[in-house]
Specification:
Strands 1, 4, 5, 8, 14, 15, 16, 17 and 19 form a 9-stranded antiparallel sheet that branches. An 8-stranded antiparallel sheet has the order 2-7-18-9-10-11-13-12. The chain is built from 8 helices and 19 strands. It is of the alpha+beta class. Helices cover 17% and strands 32% of the residues.
């Protein structure tokens, strides 16, 4: 009888691990991107904004000559222009969108961020996607608009991927459960974080923090630790050669594979970091944000309002 109980317990643990992905794993450092290494690890996308923002994405040479990106030691800055008055016609406010040269399937991505863009009309994001959106999937790790905290992590997919209404172990609050990008204006299946200092001015005034995302075929998880948190895992904080996500505690957002075949809906992804203004989200909700004027008029005529519209990365580390 005791042997039977032990076997049953082992089967139950294995089943839970397979179904819900509750246990972590050990990953080895693949890419350690710090300071000037961003220029080698990422490509600059000088493209029309897919989200229709009041923005002009510039190439690497322009971003460097205009100080929209610069690196020093363990700091990489990516920012929007804060000097130029824009007329009602012509190009939008200059900014930067970069995409990793490498693609990643099963992996952990860690973002050590000291500062993120803030200001009315801003829409900063750190995310991953594949070559055939939305069928390749999208994972939004950091995203928000108009200084509206907290952060939200969201999946966007083709039809057939959704999240369960119960049984998810995370500290955040689930929103829409259907991840299908073709319904409800591409809302996706999101989780609103519980920590107010995970986005915007509260994040910046606290010295930033760490975001981490783990993806495998059983689940996708996203964590956040504020800069002054006593619970930051030592392997993550120190940029160790290996990390064990099983020691990282309950994530802010947990997306299990119970109603979404992750291997089917998510291809290998490249990391994207960008800052746009207004557009499909920030512009559409601008009137409810407490910001002045209209979004486009504010972005056009208040360049000084974007002095703090910048990312400061201490590191991006990818483990596989």
């Amino acid at each position: 009888m005791n042997k039977f109980i032990c076997l049953l317990a082992a089967f139950s643990i294995a089943s839970l691990t397979q179904i819900y992905g509750v246990l972590g794993a050990t990953y080895t450092l693949s890419d350690n991107i710090v300071g000037n290494a961003f220029y080698d690890a990422f490509s600059w996308e000088a493209i029309s904004d897919p989200t229709h923002g009041r923005v002009k994405y510039v190439d690497q040479a322009t971003s460097r000559s205009q100080n929209l990106t610069y690196a020093s030691g363990n700091s990489f800055i990516l920012r929007g222009d804060y000097k130029t008055y824009l007329g009602s016609g012509g190009a939008g406010r200059a900014s930067v969108r970069i995409i990793s040269k490498k693609s990643y399937a099963t992996h952990v991505a860690v973002f050590d961020v000291r500062h993120m863009p803030q200001g009315c009309g801003t829409w900063p994001a750190i995310w991953e996607t594949g070559p055939d959106w939305p069928y390749s999937g999208e994972v939004d790790i950091v995203e928000g608009v108009n200084d509206q905290a907290p952060n939200a992590a969201t999946l966007h997919t083709g039809p057939g991927c959704s999240m369960p209404s119960s049984g998810r172990s995370h500290t955040g609050t689930s929103g829409q459960l259907d991840c299908n990008a073709f319904i409800n204006g591409n809302t996706g299946c999101g989780v609103r974080f519980s920590q107010w200092n995970s986005f915007g001015p509260p994040f910046n005034s606290n010295g930033g923090g760490w975001f981490a995302m783990e993806r495998n075929n059983n689940f996708i998880k996203v964590w956040f630790w504020p800069r002054n948190s006593g619970s930051v895992p030592s392997d993550l904080r120190n940029g160790a050669q290996t990390v064990n996500t099983g020691n990282w505690g309950t994530p802010a957002a947990h997306f299990p594979n119970t109603q979404c075949n992750i291997a089917e809906h998510f291809d290998a992804h490249r990391i994207i970091i960008n800052l746009t203004f207004c557009g499909d989200w920030a512009g559409n909700v601008y009137g409810q944000s407490g910001c002045p004027s209209s979004c486009v008029d504010f972005v056009n005529t208040n360049p000084g309002a974007f002095r703090d519209a910048y990312f400061d990365f201490a590191a991006v580390r990818v483990y596989r």
